[in-house]
Amino acid sequence: MQDRNARIYAAIAAIPPGRVASYGAIAARAGLPGRARLVGRLLGEVPDGMELPWFRVLRASGHVAMPPGSRGFREQCRRLRAEGVEVVNGRVPLSRFGLDGNLDHALWGWPDA
DNA sequence: CACATGACAGGGG
DNA sequence: ACCCCTGCCATGT
């Protein structure tokens, strides 16, 4: 059970800077296909201080998942732009920055393939 | 124990 | 491209 969370965190930590991934993609890479919601629930409970690139996780549509205008929303957009990711109206062009759905899988440098 | 909720996703209209 | 509905599943009432 706890091991499950660890794998999800690992999947998120593996997203290269300047790129983004969807909740579903993270769940899949963590060996939990179809459990995107689980990933979202976990991100909502990331203990302060835990170092994790949570801001690189978006909806499958490329949208930032938090309520537009909310504190977290702005924080996420800010951090993404800080590393060169383009955010337009709370949305990121997955065609260019997305890790899933493209030919960029080679960039996921983790232990499987 | 039944029911509502949620940082989700995919398919259809 | 947007809205709605359905499938999912852990938590909280």
Automatic annotation (TrEMBL):
<dbReference type="GO" id="GO:0032259">
    <property type="term" value="P:methylation"/>
</dbReference>
<protein>
    <submittedName>
        <fullName>Cysteine methyltransferase</fullName>
    </submittedName>
</protein>
<dbReference type="InterPro" id="IPR052520">
    <property type="entry name" value="ATL_DNA_repair"/>
</dbReference>
<dbReference type="GO" id="GO:0006281">
    <property type="term" value="P:DNA repair"/>
</dbReference>
<feature type="domain" description="Methylated-DNA-[protein]-cysteine S-methyltransferase DNA binding">
    <location>
        <begin position="5"/>
        <end position="85"/>
    </location>
</feature>
<dbReference type="InterPro" id="IPR036388">
    <property type="entry name" value="WH-like_DNA-bd_sf"/>
</dbReference>
<dbReference type="Pfam" id="PF01035">
    <property type="entry name" value="DNA_binding_1"/>
</dbReference>
<keyword id="KW-0808">Transferase</keyword>
<dbReference type="InterPro" id="IPR036217">
    <property type="entry name" value="MethylDNA_cys_MeTrfase_DNAb"/>
</dbReference>
<keyword id="KW-0489">Methyltransferase</keyword>
<keyword id="KW-0227">DNA damage</keyword>
<dbReference type="GO" id="GO:0008168">
    <property type="term" value="F:methyltransferase activity"/>
</dbReference>
<dbReference type="InterPro" id="IPR014048">
    <property type="entry name" value="MethylDNA_cys_MeTrfase_DNA-bd"/>
</dbReference>
